[in-house]
């Protein structure tokens, strides 16, 4: 495993995701409500760092009161029997396909093994969780230092909480829980919901360029916190335009669109348009090919800097769709995309 060097700070390389992970939502992302609730021990590094959505980093020479500062969850050296563990609340109840147990930058101090259990609970109370019935969805698995471990879960049902066990002690830099939210549209009736939001199961499928900012940022909760918290492409020096494809959390009819260029001022797109389709079957690669020929949901619209652009009357009547293709002309940055609609019944 390699890492980026940024001066004295080293930032871990992202993993190459298999299809089951790439087509999933990280249910342990704090930006959709996930949280580390409790740890048996986190003397060297607070367990909450393990869920940070940013890549793990290593800062040579950085120490705190307890020793070397590490970007992840790290327990003290265990001098008794037993093992360390923590409770994690998922951001949404969901089915779990697998995990990335990432030990980036942990070398002589990584956890030698991990297992993961899951449960369904309507409370985050630690005492109640200790008494809950837990199901093992990842048996004890050996880990290596400074590595991504992409591990399949052994489960079909949906869960709300995890118990992460490390044997006997040590550190994990990041935990990603790849799965799909369930029940997010139940009881919503005819109200408008953001069909593409990350917390509702939306996901980025493909994009032609994301040099300065990930397409996944488009569907994060809230407005962007800065210019880096959006999708931004490089400066285009050839004909054409940039684009990204997103899959909705559920099929639905789109009635209101918001394109937010928050923080993008000298680098917002001049115009945008959206194509859409109801896609059944196929792969992400086949969706890319098809998307060039999808019908237009939103014809080209002029954009301005640092603003929320709301479109209703301009939307073409199309019925339920599952995927959209956001086109920006010719290039630039968009902070958020909201697709408000009604779920297909």
TrEMBL record:
Main EC class the enzyme belongs to: hydrolase
Pfam family, one: Allantoicase
Catalytic reaction list: allantoate + H2O = (S)-ureidoglycolate + urea
Record-listed E.C. numbers: 3.5.3.4
Pathway info: Nitrogen metabolism; (S)-allantoin degradation; (S)-ureidoglycolate from allantoate (aminidohydrolase route): step 1/1
GO molecular function per UniProt: allantoicase activity
RNA-binding found in the keyword field: no
Keyword Hydrolase set for record: yes
Protein origin, superkingdom: Bacteria
Ranges of residues in domain Allantoicase: 33-181, 201-343
UniProtKB keywords: Hydrolase, Purine metabolism
InterPro entries assigned: Allantoicase (IPR005164), Allantoicase_dom (IPR015908), Galactose-bd-like_sf (IPR008979)
Matches recorded under NCBIfam families: allantoicase
Assigned protein family: Belongs to the allantoicase family.
UniProt-listed HAMAP family: Allantoicase
Protein name: Probable allantoicase
Species this chain originates from: Aromatoleum anaerobium
Lineage: Bacteria, Pseudomonadati, Pseudomonadota, Betaproteobacteria, Rhodocyclales
Name of the gene: alc
